[in-house]
Amino acid sequence: MPERRSGDHVDLRRLRLQAMLTQEELAHKAGIGIRTIRDIESGKARPQPKTSRLLMEALGLAGSDQALLTSPPEARPAPRELPRRPTAFVGRERQVDGIVAAIDEGATVVTVHGMAGVGKTSLAVWAAHELAPRFPDGQLFVDLHGVTYTDEPRPGQRSALTRLLRSLGADDQDLPGSIDELRGRYRSVIADRRVLLVLDNATDADQVEALLPGTPNSLVLATSRRDLSQLTGVHSVPLDLPQMNEAVAMLDAAVDVRITTDEAAEIAQRCGRLPLAMSLAAARLRSRPQWQVKDLLARLAEDGWLLSELDTRHGGVTAALSASYAELDADHRRMFRRISLVPGDDVDAHAAAALSELSERHAGWTLEALVDVHLVESRSAGRYRLHDLVRIYTRQLAETEESRAEQENALVRLVDVYLHFAYRAANRVAPTKVRVLAAGAAKYDLGLPDIVDKDAALAWFRAERANLAAAVTAAERSGNLEAAWHLATAFSTFRLADRDYEEYLTVNQTALDIARKLGDEAHEAITLADRGRHFIVAGRSREAVACLEQTVDLYNKLGEDAAAALALRNIGIAHRQSGRFAAALDVYGDALARAEDASDTLARVLVRANMIAPLLRLGRLMDAKRRLDEVARLLEDDDEYNRLRIDSYRGTLAREAGDAAAALQVHRACLERCRQLGFRVGLGPMLVEVGMDLVQLGRGAEATVYLRQALEDAEDLGYLAHVRTALVDLGRALVLSGEFEEAIGHFERAAVLAQSHEDMYEVARAHHGLADAYRARGDASAEQVHLRRAMHAYAECGVPEETVVRGRAV
Length: 810
Fold this sequence. Notes:
By secondary structure, this protein is mainly alpha-helical. Among the domains are: 6-70, 434 Repressor (Amino-terminal Domain) (Orthogonal Bundle), CATH 1.10.260; 93-238, P-loop containing nucleotide triphosphate hydrolases (Rossmann fold), CATH 3.40.50.300; 244-311; 319-402, Orthogonal Bundle (Arc Repressor Mutant, subunit A), CATH 1.10.10.10; 403-491, no CATH class. The protein is built from 40 helices and 8 strands. It has a 5-stranded parallel beta sheet, sandwiched between helices. It has a 3-stranded antiparallel beta sheet with strand order 6-8-7. The protein is globular and about 95 Å long.
């Protein structure tokens, strides 16, 4: 059964997650059945008026949010994303007929490959229009940017899948975390639909393979400069240069009555029969009525000037755009030129105002006027971009009509605007990095509006994300090194806003190169500290440790004891997340000594608090209690977050000491406080603690509710260490509930993740869970296999569980 589109059901799930409630808790609070909650969230049912009222009261809804439960569902039209059909498409009838015939015979994947400019996209778009009536559920068009002309990093597989799922009606809030699950969701959504999908400008076969539907209902047309025939079951169309008679037909259709067959053949010969070159030559004739064909041929006669004459920055596109450009006044011309300086894909009015030296309001009016004459595109309200060919043209204009200094100053102003908003957004998202972010915000305060809250900060970042990454590169290349470093540093703050770790590491590497080029060791230390945290979140603990050790050395050299203590603390986190608990404690000991020397209260609190988890894992309960008491004495009155952590650890200590009932009482109170205070990052771990208490009490069904939400939360944040933990504990709860197959699936996924991230403790726990699951199923042989694996992994960690498992292993 196909997945329901986002317009087919109310958005109860997002509202519930915002309220930090499980389905069971919402059902209890609203006084309705949990099955009703599930049916509404899945789209199987819509709430009746009484149910809507109860849900509104339970969720505390007011204003526009109520419409999400009460407004009728909007009908979502099937996507129709194909570009305009080529107006003078001739000479490729044989290839079009071949594609149609192959599809009639059952082909579901057709690829077109050939050299640049040979007409791959035109062929695919023409064929797609011919075939569109066969695919009533929509036609999608995605440029995969195999060849790109901006500084913007090439979009990865996650971006393409997310783009397709949005077009097919999926809700961003409902997209899974891992790339494998994202692929699975895409294939589920498209499975029962008849969709035509054009994948233009693919890098290689792997990029296309990842986007192929899993069922034969839909058709994929892909273009690439590379041969994609290694795709299974593909109908491959190698698109060569047209034969001379076809080339003549192309020129004749493009130029109309002004050209003879012999003249067309001569032009085609000088153009190498390359369709792009021929179209530009034809455009020159159309835009210059005073020319004869011989005038064009004279310009094409000399090899030294041939490529210049056929350059895509000139000819037909240039002539057409120049005619429009001539009609603009000075402000509109300047805006049109300056948008080409944007390193990314699009701009808002603030950025455009900085580029064009206009007020924000005037910039907005100017952009809308350019949209009206089709020189600028606006794909969403308030954001503006140039078509790729128009961008090439405007860059040429900027080079011709602007001095190098004017262009560089415009880029500086643009980057400063990004920095103004980036630091303000970063302070909303990560207020604990007060010293670094506050200094940056003060340095780049342009007097522009502030960002009001965390939600607004995240919305701004997601809209500008690609521009920010590209602007870092552009600023660095232009020599604006200090600003590029600051922008990359602010960018790093958002690493939990999405899961594209590689781009964060790429931007961070640019910042690191800049810091070293400037010889600024303070900048280098900050950047290395960020890099270590990126590696920790990405599950790359060994790289994190190596990076953070360099950070410590720099802070030692700079005499920054408190900063060195926090860097050492992060090394300890990396060790702990790899199951190296004794090593973590050794590092934490060094960190604590530095914090004490610096008399930095926050560092002393954080380091002591982080020591508690490895002490608990090693069974050193009295030492853990001592550290808890020390932290409690050091806490500031308004430090709600760390006070919550300490209270939670007291509950964990009670559970480890054998009193799970007392632990549950503490953890449930902590969970409620976490929700009240809005501590998003702490929610998942707190849900895990409640779930673990319930597991120890033998209440598997209740535990499953909390642990499912914990897993959902961890995947939403993309914090892989939390994902591994939630998977294992959810598996344990499912074993208690008799759901062995699902439990085994979670344990196996956790084992793979933990092994890939060298987390021996979670490897051990995953295999321990598998042993319990197979024992419950009566499979003694499989139980022993996993017990032995668990035993060896526990032994590497030096934890008490090794003795327990050894007693069961044969």
